[in-house]
Amino acid sequence: MNNTSQIGVLGLGAYVPERVLTNHDLEKMIDTSDEWITTRTGIKERRIASEGEASSDLGAKAALKALEDAKVDPAEIDAIVVATLSPDHIFPATACIIQEKIGAVKAAAFDLSAGCSGFVYALAVAYGLVQTGLEKVLVIGAETISRFVNWQDRSTCVLFGDGAGAVVLGRVERGGILGFDLGADGSGHSILNIPVGGSREPITPENLAQNRHYLYMVGSEVFRFAVRTVPRTSRKALKKAGLEVGDVDWLIPHQANTRIIDAAVNLMGIESEKVVVNLDKYGNTSAASIPIAWAEAAEDGRIKRGDKLLLVGFGAGLTWASMVLEY
Ligand code: UT7
CA 125 to CA 182: how far, in whole Å? Predict the structure, then answer.
């Protein structure tokens, strides 16, 4: 489009925990079935962090892979932006913990809260940081949502998984970020949240007993919002990039539900062969889902350097974010 075209991805990496939890495992834990989960969501299994493994541990492993891919030393990183809705602590930022773990000694570090849109929001923020003078920024989506779901609540616990993905952003010779669109509709803040544990409603024995410290979601409303929003934000990002839907080599949507992806893809008129989907293996990993899908498709050779990618996220806030870039 314009002078935005010179900032792009130097390296990419992802990490998922080893433990696999299948739909059949869930059948033994709660009143659900592989058939319900598969037909309603497309998910077959998800990864679960081991005891003592937190978002910073997953994020640090993904970050080290991205740094290796970029051939960049951690000490060269100027800033770390971590998108997460499952941080190690309310404070300090998970980004600071990752900074120490990977030895990014000169990096500024902060977290960004934009739900499942967080990774694309963080990429846009990192783009701004590089545009205004920083050289290399690490962008990480890292989640251990398994710690925040109620494992007795079948309407939510079957959906989510743990994992992390990361990119190193910096100056590139050609291509890079071509356009993006970010947005929010705060009137939907209460349909996807963790009600208790913040300053609005601190933890008490009573609200703990009511399980209100776990993730809460009105799934059907989020579903409708997502199908409406994905095509709209994608069109805006494509317009800013000066591209048409037909120019996109790969769509990498947030991996929440195959029915959401299929409906949005139909509305957008993108061929299904151009859509990266891996939620069958990992479930919804929130801010980590886009970079995990991207890294996996790059590693197996589907996505190649020079390909034009459309990333689209949506989630808590409610928020949405899309970005067009040449990888
Ligand atoms: O990352 C962004 C945030 N999240 C999302 O994007 C999720 C968006 N929403 C969705 O993906 C879908 O709304 C869900 C997968 C969460 C739910 O699918 P749905 O088609 O909207 O189902 P529903 O919530 O309307 O539930 C239908 C039925 C209910 O039974 P009744 O009331 O019709 O008898 C539920 O009790 O399915 C039942 N149900 C289950 N049955 C077996 C709900 N969860 C389960 C389950 N196993 N795990």
Answer: 11
